[in-house]
Amino acid sequence: MLSYIFRRVLWMIPTLLGAAVLVFLLMRAIPGDVCVLRLATGGGSIDPQVLRNCQAEVGTDQPMIVQLLLFIKSLIMLDFGKSMWTGRPIIEEVGLRFQLSLQVAIMATLTAIMLAIPLGTISAVKQNTWIDYVVRAFSIAGVAMPSFWLGILIILGILTASKALFGTPWMPPITYVPIWVDPVHNLSMLIWPALATGYRYSAVATRMTRSAMLEVLREDYVRTARAKGLFHKLIVRRHALRNALLPVVTIIGIEFAFLMGGLVVTEQVFNLNGLGKLFVESVANHDYNMTQALVMIVVGIFAFTNLAIDILYGFLDPRIRYNR
Amino acid sequence: MATISQRAAADHLPPRPSRLAVLWQFCRQNPLGAAGGFVVIVMIAMAALADAVTVYDPTANNFRAALEAPGATYWLGTDQFGRDLYARVVYGARTALLIGFVSAFVGGTVGLILGVASAHFGGRFDLTLTGVMDVLMAFPLIILALAMVSIFGTGTFNVIIAITIPFIPRCARVVRSSALAVREMPYIDAARACGYSHARIVMRHMVPNVFAPYLVVMTAAVGQAILLEASLSFLGLGVQEPVAAWGLMLRGGAEYAESAAWIAIFPGIAISLAVFGFNLFGDALRDWLDPKLKV
Description:
heterodimer; A: mainly alpha; 13 helices; B: mainly alpha; 14 helices
């Protein structure tokens, strides 16, 4: 097992390196310069000497290959440097936003699991009945509904309901406070985006649970269990669901990794200062260091989540052995 | 002699069902898929006949009629510029379908060719291509699309490019896994033994046999492209004013959600219905084409 994990970690290196080169090139392909943007905010013309000084300060005056090597070195040292836009250390800028995004991702994942596994199982067991049709329509509606639109509807619902109940409209707080400091404030702020994204996320997982269960329910060992006269519920829970969980775990893991950086539009709707919003701002400001760091964080989480899923496979399915 | 025996064998076969009968069977076996197909057809008709089914110009401002609630004059109300929301929703279907179909078709087709070629050639070519695809797929779709929009700029054509590129690896991945099985088939060995060129083997013998997963991926991709376009336009980085686009309408709607909720509601319903239709249709298509689920 340990040697398998070691081999997998080694395999991650080309993916991470490829992602680093890709994001580096993509950022350089965007027309514009962070220094021109920074200096232009004051208005008036830009002194060429001041521009050169700024470029020397942020490092964009160096040849491309040197910039790339410096970036890769910073990755190896896990020191992303300073933001080209604010001048503050990236680790500081990302820190609090990372907490927020991680909490939303965890809450959305829990919502998704609680919805997806029971619904997907019922849908498969009752295939082609009205229950199946309702669950499928519910889950496909979740995939179809943009989570940012669901977010707008949730905000609209909160405003209308609070106005009707208390006379004055209530809005969720917009300043982030960690959950251990003020749990009520924290949850009243983050529960809504978690519900909006969790529903969408659950829809994908429900469909996967249904199709995996449909395949497993046709397996010989399920037929054998039925022939042995086992209770239907026991067959579904112990024999079918456990074996159908592998692809579901994969999809939940992949979605979790993407939630960390992919909530760009939902964060905009709920005015959350998370990683997605920071990404949009850093691309707009041509803040190469910040964008590269954010993308590498997301890609790193994606790669490690994949590894965690693979390890989890071994526990979920005893037939999978990595040491052979 | 052979012709006579073939004819005799053909006489014993059940008659081939007509296309209408196949369609009816599909609708009966997949009622949800048929509903999805119906939504898609209505949407295409709406987009094609937009001039005939609307009265007002979707881009003409009329500040005197700004923020009017839905009623007899303006069925779905008006937006903050006094534009008829019904006309904008109907014309928005054109933008959504154009972006959805073109991105899904181009991205899917390039992915199809790359996926099949990767499986056919194998070795270093396959390893390199799979590596590149893995790297591209490690990026969330919206992040890659945002990076593309930042490079190419906003506007309908650039949004199509920005959405197409992230779709290529996703389709290539799915198609490659099917093509790996096709590669081992005896008819591919036979084609190789006949001395056919790589291009001929890939295009004439492998591509038609991985068409089912390609079609399923492409149908789902149309829905995803519509969602992605709406997300980009909502952020102000997609289609630009005054073009009628659902995401762009929601961007305005979010600002006026409290005083004129209809601006935020109707474009969202249109996006959801469109994606709902394509997803249902795609699901039914997958069930229909997957022999394992027919047992």
